[in-house]
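The instructor's notes for this session suggest beginning with a concrete chain rather than abstract definitions. Hand out the sequence below and ask the class to guess, before any prediction is shown, which regions might be ordered.
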Amino acid sequence: MPLLHIEDLHTYYGHVHALKGITLDVEAGEIVTLLGANGAGKSTTLRAISGLIPIREGSLTFDGRPLNNMPAHKIVEQGIAHAPEGRHIFATLTVTENLNMGAYTLGSNKAAIAANRERVFKLFPRLEERRRQLGGTLSGGEQQMLTIGRALMASPRLLLLDEPSLGLAPLLVRLIFDTIREINAAGVTVLLVEQNARAALKIAHRAYVMETGRLTLSGSAAELLADERVRKAYLGES
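After discussion, reveal the predicted structure:
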């Protein structure tokens, strides 16, 4: 049984049919990436999984348990954390306070919160250096680290990452992707939405391609890297 199973999922924004019957699986321990142009439905898929938009039709299960239209905070409690596009950190809170906000599912377990915070600082030493600094004063790359770190504070089994390299310098992009590998190696399953298709496919086990709310291709990352359609559309090759 896959860790995450989506079957014939439909969502709407008002009268706009955003997801048109997508079916996909994510196995425990995998990195799976969703590729596609802007507006294809990639971020909408993550938002549906994390309970931020309602599901009109179809089913969504996590570890065999149905998640359809479960409140977002309850989905986090099930073991799914979402690092959204655009970061959405708390600008007027310190780095430590931002991280603690991600650990609310741990309640008053101060030892567990501290242990998770130390794991985040080990992944992102720069955050430890700036632990007392306000989130709004961080650089773009540091804010992205904080967004991922905040999601990890909930001890997720599945991490949803939405455009983690967006707007970052190449050196930081490499750092972020190396860190995603490290997070996965530590036992966290990852569903990755990423415009940098080449970088995403290099670290992913499998991939799906979305076009206008539908899945049009799927396969191993190596297969899609070699697929002429993917190379032309997403890797900039003629």
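Then share the key points. The first strand starts at residue 4 and ends at 13. The radius of gyration is 17 Å.
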